[in-house]
Amino acid sequence: GVSGYFAESFLFMFAGRAVLGLAIAGIKTASITMVGDYYEGDERQKVLSWQGSATKVGGFAFMFLGGYLANFNWQMPFLGYALAFLLLPSALLALGESLPKTAASSPKYVDASAVPFWPCAYVFVSATLASGLFFVTPVQLPFYLTSAFDASPLQTGLAVGVGNTVGAIVALTYYRFKHHLNYVAIYAVIFLSMSAGYYVLTLMPTYTTSLIAMV
Length: 215
What we know:
Elements: H1 3-6, H2 10-38, H3 41-70, H4 83-97, H5 117-149, H6 153-172, H7 174-180, H8 183-202, H9 207-214
Helix pairs in contact: 3-6, 5-6, 5-8, 6-9, 8-9
């Protein structure tokens, strides 16, 4: 991720982002899998809530910080990725000491016929759509706010950060929603909320309205 600070060509930037994408895919997959390994039942739902909230809090902090640093130099926000080096030692120590003792007894092979195809396909397609729709915001919103309201990098970072902040609050209460709604209903609420937010964005007469849309 830090490579973006030193990028002098599009190819160099592209290569660095590609490697970063591989890393993010690995971390997201591993962290969700570990929650499934370490916890069960209501405790698992709570930990998933905390994890989702932590992700959103980090998103807000880095969007806000990135927008602030971009006022000085467009390359400076990439230095934020250097914080990963500070997390690495503690992560290695914590994970090394707390690996599940029963991991070795887990089955090495899973019968493919035991995996329900259509429910899995529904989950994968829904997750892909949700991720794609979500990332429209950090990718496109800064350009739109700049062209519509001549927003500064700090203002664009704040707009994206507002959405992450609300997301962090909602994530903390996820396990409460799960007690009253099934997964299909939760998906419905998610997509309806995203649709409503993007519809409000199309009506943006002011910068303040864009903040409401992000909420």
